[in-house]
Amino acid sequence: MNEDLIPMLLTGFGETLYMVVLSTVAAVVLGLPLGVLVVITSTGHVLESPRLNRVLGTVINITRSFPFIIMIVLLLPLSRFLVGTTLGATAAAVPLSIAAAPFLARIIENSLKEVDRGKVEAALAMGATPLQIVRKVLIPEALSSLVLGLTLAVITITGFTATAGAIGAGGLGSLAIRYGYMRYREDVMFATVLILVIFVQGVQWSGDRLARRINRNQHRLG
Amino acid sequence: MITIDSLNKQYHTPRGSYHALRDVTLQVKKGDIFGIIGLSGAGKSTLIRCLNRLEEPDSGSIVIDGREITGLATHELRDARKKIGMIFQHFNLLDSRTVQGNVAFPLELAGFPRKEITRRVAEILDLVGLSDKAGSYPAQLSGGQKQRVGIARALANHPEVLLSDEATSALDPQTTRSILELLADINRKLGLTIVLITHEMSVIRQICGKVAVLDRGEIVESGPVDAVFSAPSSATMRLFLEHSTLLQGSGAGI
Ligand SMILES: Nc1ncnc2c1ncn2[C@@H]1O[C@H](COP(=O)(O)OP(=O)(O)O)[C@@H](O)[C@H]1O
Ligand SMILES: [Mg+2]
Hints:
Shape of chain A: globular
Distance between the termini of chain B: 31 Å
Order of helices and strands of chain B: EEEHEEHEHHHEHEHEEHH
Largest sheet of chain B: 6 strands, mixed
CATH class of chain A: Mainly Alpha
Strand order of the largest sheet of chain B: 6-7-8-3-9-10
Number of strands of chain B: 10
Radius of gyration of chain B: 18 Å
Helix content of chain A: over 70%
Strand content of chain B: 25-35%
CATH architecture of the domain at 1-83 and 161-170 and 192-254 in chain B: 3-Layer(aba) Sandwich
Radius of gyration of chain A: 20 Å
Largest sheet of chain A: none
CATH superfamily of chain A: MetI-like
Shape of chain B: globular
Oligomer: heterodimer
Helix content of chain B: 25-40%
Order of helices and strands of chain A: HHHHHHHHHH
Largest interface: A-B, 25 and 32 residues
CATH class of the domain at 1-83 and 161-170 and 192-254 in chain B: Alpha Beta
CATH topology of the domain at 1-83 and 161-170 and 192-254 in chain B: Rossmann fold
Number of helices of chain A: 10
Bound molecules: adenosine-5'-diphosphate, magnesium ion
């Protein structure tokens, strides 16, 4: 049986990768505006709005408090509506991205909050619009920290895909459950875990490297 | 010309209200270097930040070059701000941008074409003596160099007024002197009106033509620097003078 292990793992890894990439992109599309809005609507910021800020904060907290497995079940109708099915990697990307978006929003919020208020003030004094402040001040100044946050999100989403795999999403998680757990194939179990460990390490290493590179200019002493 | 009329500003905190500016009335002539001096907490920053409405005054009016700043709608205020340069105690440069990129920033905001930006940035860096640092990042510069970048950035879009909020307070005396010389030089060359706040007598003495003394939110005296220094009428100014002669006497040499 060992000869079909490799293609099986490759397919599984491909599905996992596909889910991670798709969900990360969708989570960024949802989470970035959310995180940015939470920051700029906070007290004393460029688009101060206590009410909107409170609403957004509550939405984030509520979505974050759902256990992921419950989230999947709750979002089954949405997956069916958007993708046409509740099975497979694309369908799984729906709950994955919706679960990851508020998490990512908080990470982004924390990064952007670190940007010195003086820089924002200087830009305001030069006549910048709130959008220009987001695009030209907050994001570039927080970039290395944002990259680290995104790295963390990718790794968290990778973990989520394993859970999603347990209930029909495909990917390495699904292999581990179907073969490793149900059919006592320890080699499959071991191989999937090994691939995931290597993948997570690789993501972390790349993220760290990229963040360091961005940081180097800003903190290089001449 | 800047006309400030009966400006009031209160801060409301959970612990109560604080009257940071009380009926402040001032006139700054075009081309002047106008100093505002006061102790820490006197309301200097509040006052200068009202001039470009980084702080919203509660009442009173501010007119700069015939334009009533206090009456502008948000988008008009943004346009007005593009013609009011500001420099800060902690420079507030963007660490992710080079010197060149920092000075280009206000020009990008104003929508200038790339070529024009490059030309203007080179010109202004030459004016502040930083042409050789165009490609450096702020982290690679000394405090004095950073403030030169701040000044270049503030001047890039041909402002009519330059606001300086304790711009030399984070610098050593020698660097302070060179930055003040640069400001005086710019004032002469460009005929730029400069409003400068400080808690240091020496700064006023070195470059200001007129001075106003702010004490607990009120202007307690104002006039030409020579007159105010030789015959101070307020207790605050006398205290300031006493303090600075004391330091001079003991050889600290302000
Ligand atoms: N945002 C704020 N909220 C509440 N109080 C403030 C705020 N900013 C300044 N103040 C108070 O107003 C007074 C004047 O402050 P400021 O204008 O910064 O003084 P200065 O620049 O002369 O040191 C101080 O007592 C300060 O504590
Ligand atoms: Mg101050």
